[in-house]
Structure formats: C-alpha cells, structure tokens
Design goal:
Blueprint: E1 3-6, E2 9-13, E3 16-19, E4 22-25, E5 37-39, E6 43-45, E7 48-55, E8 58-61, H1 68-82, H2 88-105, H3 114-127, H4 131-135, H5 138-146, H6 148-155, E9 165-171, H7 173-177, H8 184-192, H9 196-204, H10 210-216, H11 220-224, H12 236-247, H13 250-259, E10 269-273, H14 277-288, E11 292-296, H15 305-308, H16 317-324, H17 326-329, E12 333-335, H18 346-351, E13 356-359, E14 365-366, E15 381-383, H19 384-395, E16 406-410, H20 414-425, E17 430-434, H21 446-454, E18 458-460, E19 463-471, E20 474-485, E21 496-498, E22 504-507, E23 510-513, E24 517-518, H22 522-526, E25 551-553, H23 556-559, H24 564-584, H25 591-601, H26 627-630, H27 643-650, E26 658-664
Parallel strand pairs: 10-11, 10-13, 11-12, 13-25, 15-23, 16-17, 16-23, 17-18
Antiparallel strand pairs: 1-2, 2-5, 3-4, 3-8, 6-7, 7-8, 7-26, 9-26, 14-24, 19-20, 20-21, 20-22
Helix pairs in contact: 1-2, 2-3, 3-5, 5-6, 8-9, 8-12, 8-27, 9-12, 9-13, 10-12, 14-24, 19-20, 20-21
Length: 673
C-alpha cells in the first residue's frame, strides 16, 4: 500500500480489487490499480492502517496478506443481522453463506462449496426485495469471479485463519443525508409492523423534537431517497410527523426516561446558553447522560428561532412547547430572561460550579441590504427576523400587527418564504418576492415556494434592490435592478451582476430584508474569551470546542443560519463531546463518524438505484387547507395523515441499506456512534 498526493489530498492506491464491475490489480503487468485511487484511506485511526474495504459496489485490498475469507465472513454476518426477514433469499441466503464462510475460516469442511456460494449469492442479489439483499453479495461474487485463486489459496491450508481487526457499518442514502443520522428505514419498518412507539424511539435516540421536525424539516433524507428514481421519494417527513403526533406526550417521556443513564453526582452540572433547537438537543442528551442541566435564554419561553422565526401556520406553538417541556420533565431547568453579556458571563457560569458550557445562541440579528436609502428608512422597513418576531407577538396577542398596501420581501430562503406568507395573512393587498438569482437557485424548501405561489405571492427573480425610496422616513418604494447570470463555475454555481441601465421602480408600503442573519452581541461574547471567525460566527474545532477550554458551541452561531435538524445534530454532537471532556479530559475517536467520512470523501454511495422491479406507487401527501381559506388565518395548514395512509407510505420504502466493512491492522478504539 502506498499513498500518493492528488490535489493536496493523500490518495491511497489499491493492490487489487473490484469496483462497479471493473477489476484492478497492481500485481498484473498492466497495473490497473493506478487508475483508481482513494482519498484518506491510508489509516482508519492514528497508526492503524486500513488493510481492506468491502462495500455494496465491490471491494479493495491494500495489504496483500489480508484474509478475504475472514473479511467476507464479517461482511455477510453484518448483512444477515440486518435482514428484515421479508423475503427468503436475503433471510436464509445470507445466513447460509455466512455460516459456510465461518466454517471455512475455522479450517472446517463447509456445508457449501465455492460454486454453491456463487449460486446462492446470485439468487440473493437478483431476487431479494430490498436494497440490502440486492447489494450484500456484490463483493462476494466479485471476489469469486475475479480473484477466486485468493480464496482457494487460503482454504488449501485446511487450518484456522487468524481473526482480523475491523468493523462493519450499516447505513442507507437517507441516513447519510440526515444531519442527525436518524435510521430512517428502521423507523419506517416499525410503522409498517404496527409498532409506532418503537418508531418514535428511533427518533428520540437522536433528538427530542420529532413532531417539530416532522413539520419544518427541509428533508435532506428525501433528496437522497432512491425511490425518486422510480416515481417519488418516500414521504419520510410525513411519516415522522405521523409517528410523533400519535406517540407524543407520555409515550415520548416514558421512552426517554428509560434511556437515562444513572444520574451523576450533584456537582456534574452543565450550563446551556440558548433554548433553541441546538440548546434543547444538547440539554436533552446531557440529561440522558445523567448530568444536571440548566438552560439560560434571553426570551421568556423556549424554542429560539423555532419559536419566533417559524410562523404558527407551519409550526403550532403548543406542539413546540410539548417537546421543549421534556427538558423540565427529565429534570433540567429553564432560566428565562437571562441574557449572556447582560445578566451573566461565561466567567460567572464557571464560578457557579458548572463543569462545562454550551453556547447555542443562534443568529437572531438580521443582515442589512447595504443599498442607498437604507439608513433613512425608519417606517415600514424590517429585517426578516424582526418582522417574524412581530408576527409571533401578533399571533400571541402581545402586539397586534396589520399590514396594508404592497409588501416586498428581498431574499430567497425559508425566512423569506415565512415573511411573504405571513404578510398575506396580515392583510397585505399584494406581496412580492425579489431574488437576485433564478428560481432554481432559491435555497428555500421547494414546498414552501410552491405554497407561497399558491397563496398568490408574486416572484421577481434575477432582480435586486438598488435603492430604498422613502418619504419622511416612511418606505414608499424600491428601485430594482435586473441581474444577469454568468456561465456556471466548476461547482455549478452562477455568479450574477447588475445589467447597466435596467433600473425600475416598484411601489411598496413595507420592505422586508430577509437576506441573512448573524450572531447578536458578538463583541460581548468575544470579551469572554470566545473567538469568532471571519464570518463573525463562533469559531470551533471539529469537536465543537471553542477557543476557551470547557466551552462548546453549535447550531446557527457556528454555521451561520441553517436548519433545525442541523442545529439538533450539533446539540447531540456537543453533548457527546462535553461528556467525554468532563469524564475523560479529551474527546474520544468515534469509529462510525470515521466510516461516514470515508464514504463521503470517496463518494461511495452510488446515485442510481439497484435494477429491480418496483411497482409504481405515488407518495401520500399531508392533507392541506385550501389556499384561498388558509391565507386568511394562522392556523396550521398541513394536517397529519391517518394510519391507513401511513401504512401505505411505508410500503414504498425500498429499504436501501448498504453494508460497509473495513479490515484494519490493529483493533479500532471503542467510541460512541
């Protein structure tokens, strides 16, 4: 094995192997292995060389002394353990092949010959009903087709083969796309099997806000779903909402209480600053680990941007409260109306005896447009965040808000969509979206864009504001410039530039700048020894530790404005790392994270589906209130599907599990998932 530089990345070359049906063998005269190099495959963990890798698309060997018999046994063992049992080829075939390989590696006479294994492998691959069965024999068949002599050489000794070190990792495209790495096929399996409480348990292992996520998640998992190559992606978000709505409250609380480790000593206290999705997730996972957690927030209620930034027609606030209340139910405390930099500092928290601090501050300060006339606009001009806060107060009955005339919202993200749809409900006569790029470039959830259009919002793309027009400080209009898109760059992104002389005026009574957010009170936080990066976000390392020992951070204050599910994933990661830092003084190596990085860095997950007959069955959609009715109310637009529809949707999952396995020189350290 040797590593060669390629584009600044260490590329590990293959000794022999097969990938996507193509054989590579550096031992041959043609040395075809030079045609396939892998990034960062030299070591699995520090000083621990990767000797072989087996996957759904083939295998690679980096150490010619590796035992393929033993490696394939462990691979098929993982596949057999994951089989759902719905079809005979996968349920029985994987077990028969696994047992035969086990007998071979023990030096015993196997019940199957190599030809029998080939026959069984082909049956498993061609007739299994799910992605696991259709792919788990690919590497096995490739070995016996192109490198059978290697197996025969190992078996010729008729002696036990020494066990090798390594690990197996079972995943799916939807799992890898999810920031929280929720086992999507598993929770779908439980719904299909009539066990919704078990399905909820799969979700609660990753985050506490399942019903919230089931309403506002942007569905990275569905974007990766292979079912879309047949008809439409599985309604993963729809099924999540169904389970959460059926099993919330006492069901969720009982499950999470059963997950709590033995409570730690009273001195094991952690402070969480920010009661948004990142802070709630971090507090939740720390409580499950036995810590005593206090959550500080400048507001008077939990939820952060989910509370004030997502209108109630998308996320009812009682649903959100039901899930954030789990922090108190598990023994944590909320300390509201407490602002970092005003009421306490990081120094204060450590002085009070907290062993660590997590900053989940979010980004609640709107960005400016930077155009002429902005400083003079005092009436009718809002940032997207400020406007949504006023909408929140209006719905809560704190401060009524009524709009008249025309409203222009600048921006193309989810905040912009929330602003335009809220403006309609507040009485605006006409609402416009102004976005500097094309409709296809809009980062907002496509479903939100379509919902806005159904409610009568007008979209003006390749258009940007050049000046805000005011009269005695009151917004009366905006000057717009037409934009021109360039050719796509290497990453497929087009730059845009103004078209000279294309300025036009548009009348408006309210202008909302929904173009971005940033961390509030940055200088005050920096004075506590917390460094910021050049984007004015809290700077963290790979384990979410900040520049100050014992202080971790995650969510929007680290990444910039992102999604709820990314924030919750950061909370989980931070809780895991805070636990290690307190208990061990350092953060452990996490082998599953390393395997995920190997897969991602080398684009191991193929984009196409496995060729197998699948009957067309289009997805179930959440029932919705008619656009003409809903645009006059803040009540929830989407409704939950019923049990019959949920069962029908689960049948569409193709269970695209994939098994990945590495053989290493030394044992892999035992870390968490």
């Amino acid at each position: 094995m040797r590593a060669v530089p390629w584009g600044g990345v260490e590329m590990t070359q293959v000794v022999y192997g097969v990938w996507d049906g193509v054989a590579y063998d550096s031992r041959a005269a043609e040395a075809r292995a030079a045609d396939y190099a892998l990034a960062n495959f030299d070591e699995f963990d520090e000083g621990n060389a990767i000797r072989a890798f087996i996957a759904d698309r083939g295998f690679f060997v980096f150490d010619p002394t590796v035992s393929l018999v033993d490696a394939l046994f462990h691979y098929l063992k993982a596949a057999a353990e994951q089989s759902c049992g719905a079809c005979t080829p996968c349920r029985i075939g994987t077990v028969l092949v696994r047992d035969a390989l086990d007998q071979m590696r023990r030096g015993l006479d196997a019940a199957l010959t190599l030809d029998d294994i080939v026959m069984l492998g082909e049956q498993i691959r061609q007739t299994s009903l799910c992605g696991l069965g259709q792919t788990c024999a690919v590497a096995l068949l490739a070995v016996l087709r192109d490198f059978r002599e290697r197996i025969e050489q190992e078996l010729a000794q008729h002696r036990p083969i020494p066990a090798q070190h390594g690990m197996a990792y079972v995943t799916a495209p939807c799992i890898e796309a999810c920031p929280s790495k929720v086992n999507v096929p598993r929770y779908i399996d439980y719904i299909r099997d009539g066990k919704p409480e078990n399905s909820l348990g799969v979700l609660l292992q990753k985050y506490p806000m399942a019903a919230t996520c089931g309403r506002v998640c942007v569905r990275y998992c569905e974007q990766a779903c292979r079912r879309k190559f047949v008809d439409e992606a599985v309604g993963i978000k729809t099924l999540k909402r169904y389970v959460a709505d059926q099993q919330s409250g006492p069901h969720a609380l009982k499950f999470t209480r059963d997950m709590i480790r033995k409570p730690l000593a009273d001195g094991m206290r952690v402070a969480v600053v920010g009661a948004g999705p990142a802070g709630i997730s971090c507090a939740y996972h720390l409580l499950l680990r036995g810590y005593h957690v206090d959550v500080f927030d400048k507001a008077g209620q939990a939820g952060g941007m989910a509370q004030i930034g997502i209108p109630s027609y998308r996320l009812p606030k009682d649903t959100l409260a039901l899930e954030t209340d789990i922090i108190v139910d598990l023994g944590g405390r909320f300390l509201f109306d407490q602002r970092l930099g005003r009421d306490f500092s990081v120094d204060d928290l450590f002085a009070r005896g907290y062993r660590a601090v997590f900053l989940g501050l979010g980004c609640q300060q709107g960005a400016r447009l930077g155009v002429d006339g902005e400083d003079a606009a005092h009436g009718g001009y809002f940032s997207g965040i400020d406007f949504l806060l006023k909408v929140h107060d209006h719905v809560d009955g704190i401060a009524p808000l009524v709009l008249q005339g025309e409203v222009v919202v600048v921006g193309g993200g989810n905040v912009a969509m929330d602003c335009v749809r809220s403006a309609i409900r507040l009485g605006a006569e006409k609402v416009h979206v102004v976005y500097r790029r094309t409709l296809a470039d809009m980062p907002a959830d496509p479903a939100e864009i379509e919902a806005a259009r159904a409610e009568g919002v007008e979209f003006h793309v390749l258009t940007a504001p050049a000046e805000i027009v005011t009269d005695h400080g009151k917004v009366t209009g905006v000057v717009l410039t037409r934009m021109q898109a360039s050719e796509p760059d290497a990453g497929g992104r087009r730059s845009v530039k103004p078209v000279p002389g294309s300025e036009t005026s548009m009348r408006c009574d309210v202008l909302i700048a929904a173009i971005g957010q940033q961390v509030e009170d940055g200088p005050l936080i920096e004075s506590d020894g917390i460094a910021f990066d050049r984007w004015r976000c809290v700077a963290t390392d790979r384990v979410l530790a900040t520049s100050r020992p014992g202080v971790f951070a995650g969510g929007d204050c680290v990444t910039g404005p992102s999604t709820l599910v990314y924030a919750m994933a950061a909370g989980l990661k931070a809780a895991r790392n805070i636990d290690d830092w307190i208990q061990r003084g350092s953060v452990r190596f996490f082998k599953r994270s390393r395997m995920r990085k190997l897969i991602a860095d080398n684009h191991m997950l193929a984009n196409e589906i496995v060729a197998a007959p699948v009957r067309n069955a289009y997805r179930v959609h959440n029932p919705e209130i008619d656009p003409e009715l809903r645009k006059h109310m803040f009540g929830e637009v989407e409704q939950t599907i019923d049990a019959r529809a949920a069962y029908a949707e689960t049948q569409r999952c193709m269970r695209c599990y994939r098994v990945y396995s590495v053989v290493t020189k030394h044992p892999i350290p035992e870390g968490a998932a």
